[in-house]
Fold each of these.
Amino acid sequence: QVQLVESGGGLVQAGGSLRLSCAASGIIFRLNTLGWYRQAPGKQRDLVAVITTDGSANYTDSVKGRFTISRDNSKNSVYLQMNSLKPEDTGVYYCNARLRQQSWGGSWGQGTQVTVSS
């Protein structure tokens, strides 16, 4: 059974930083591409950052230059360092995982709330 546990969210003022963590179990972690999703209030859940098995990272345009995704295979964890936060970054952040040539998993965790005040 896949389990994904997000943590590290909180309240922060615009311009501040947060570091999110996601601990995964029930998967062969090193074989999975990992991603962070964000669901803003009243909006769909969108992919904001991805890191592949070899450490290559990609980001949605709105977070490029501000967010950094990383992984630690020894800890079965993926992280999202968020700097220069903006109010529009507010939302619930979720992690997910997928194998190559496969879809993102359907077992979402509880997410972690990030609120950026102006």
Amino acid sequence: QVQVVESGGGLVQAGGSLTLSCTASELTFRRYVMAWFRQAPGKEREGVSCISWNGEITYYADSVKGRFTISRDNAKNTLYLQMNSLKPEDTAMYYCAADLRYGLDHEYKYWGQGTQVTVSS
């Protein structure tokens, strides 16, 4: 079984930065597509970003493009989301997910428990 655990959420001022981390099961991480999703209360879940298994291709939602950067370190079994120029609209529970397919428009197989990001105005 693939286990996924997120960390790095917290409270930050608008315009500030946070880096989220996601650690996946050893020896299972390397060949998986990894993604970040988020969901705010009363809103639908939104795909934020995804990255191919080798890091060669990435995708960003229009709402975060130019502000967020996804990366992965396969040697450490870790996924990152560097979030800059944060806005109150970015406030949400952020989830790390893993799947064998690339993209954000399908259901991912493995999910973390989520980490809360709150951006104050």
Amino acid sequence: HVQLVESGGDSVQAGGSLRLSCTTSGVIYSSYCIGWFRQAPGKEREGVATHDVDGTITYVDSVRGRFTVSEDNEQNTVYLQMDSLQAEDTAAYYCAAARLPLCIAGVPDRDFDYWGQGTQVTVS
């Protein structure tokens, strides 16, 4: 049994911060690459960051230095802390999981097998 549930999306002003949560089953947390993606209206899903089974984290250049991935092993949860938010960050944010030989932010969304329902982030 595998599942992912995102939470934490909200509306914030430019320059503000949010922390998103991706709570997973134990199977996913211990064995799967976890990716954060976002999708703005009219745009394709874009990879944001990844968290590998060994704790290795990667980011795309557009969020590096502003977004930070962390984890809570006890709660099987991966967090995405988003600081200095910009209007361009407005999107539905998703977490996803897959067993991948390479777990980096550039991996396309089609390679991920399990998805949460998404949480909306709006920056004004």
Amino acid sequence: QVQLVESGGGLVQAGGSLRLSCAASGRTFSTYAMGWFRQAPGKEREFVAAVSWSGGSTYYADSVKGRFTISRDNAKNTVYLQMNSLKPEDTAVYYCAADRNPWETGYRDPAAFGSWGQGTQVTVSS
């Protein structure tokens, strides 16, 4: 298990960019696949992006593909979510998640991840 802390959220205008960071406290961060999820008011938590332990494979929700980029720096125990061309519908609390093998359950399912951060608010104005 790892402990995760998100940062980088804030208020931006539509069309702008924002980079979220997730710092992990565990010594075995490099062995974990990482994911980003988001939850808007009145909606269920939804998958945004995921990256394999090596960083060699990435996956995105159709709604963010081409606009968001997930990456990781294992030397810094940190995963990032670069968000470009932001839209008002991107407004949500964004959560970082980690698991040794979310692929077994399905990386789009929040239940596949065993460790979660506290979330960071992203608000996109029109």
